[in-house]
């Protein structure tokens, strides 16, 4: 696996310092090397619009706040830290799974939007995506906790990227189950926790509901629900469902992540395996083993 962390810091600086009329084409040029992130979108994706939808930094307001945020990302050595984390994480996954397909990856790290209320209050100033083979996308505001979790966030997404690489676990958008997504989040978090400890390794949105038994029971009811359109509600929670036009199902934000951690922890405890070793494990095996250990029926 080769790792290319795009050096977006100078590009973001140029964008923020440019006259307003020049910022959009500069932003589009910065995003173009990672356009493959959106290769499954219908038609010709508008990279700038997708950047905005994902909580990326604005180009028409809050310019001073963004410049300060960029300064703090640079001060935190964010790009080098992500590069090291992904390279080291990839080596661990490959060693634990000889012969696994480990794709070359391009990493896009961008500053988040200081004025997006949903991005800050619901997503806690951090979004990330490792679901598209060959690409990792990290978008964050420079909160101290997000900066502290930078490496863990990167290897969480790396775990997804390798799990669903061609020749590994198949992700069929129409047929994939909530259970597969929930387990994948639990495995990715478990890998991040193995690398960086329990405090930093948990995805932030999954921390609050981690011990919510009612939410866990509700997620179990949806494990066989199919289709990615269902995931905003069952995995991310009602607030995300409302945001993206899905039907809420009565879950707090991050409930699927918390449930995934509980299931995966039970599975790993029962089998003695590591999250790295469990990279390609079938989600049904994880769920069935975990529920037996937890003495939960569904």
Offer a concise description of the structure.
By secondary structure, the protein is an alpha/beta fold. The protein has 15 helices and four strands. The protein has two domains: 168 residues, no CATH class; 127 residues, no CATH class.
Indicate the percent of residues in helices. Answer: 40-55%
Profile the largest sheet: 4 strands, mixed
Strand order of the largest sheet: 1-2-4-3
Strand residues, percent: 5-15%
Put simply, the count of helices is 15
The Rg value, from CA coordinates, equals: 19 Å
Order of helices and strands: EHHHHHEHEEHHHHHHHHH
Distance between the termini: 40 Å
Shape: globular
Uncertain residue ranges: none
| Number of domain units | 2
Give the averaged pLDDT, no decimals: 96
Number of strands: 4
Alpha-beta content class: alpha/beta
State the main characteristics:
alpha/beta; globular; 298 residues; 4-stranded mixed β-sheet; DUF2268
How would you describe this protein?
This protein is α/β, with parallel strands linked by helices. It has 2 domains: 1-168, no CATH class; 172-298, no CATH class. Helices cover 53% and strands 7% of the residues. It contains 15 helices and 4 strands. A 4-stranded mixed sheet has the order 1-2-4-3. β3 (126-129) and β4 (135-140) form a beta hairpin. α1 packs antiparallel against α4 (63-75) and α9 (178-196) packs across α15. The longest helix has 19 residues, at 78-96. It is globular, with a radius of gyration of 19 Å. 46% of the residues are buried. The mean pLDDT is 96.
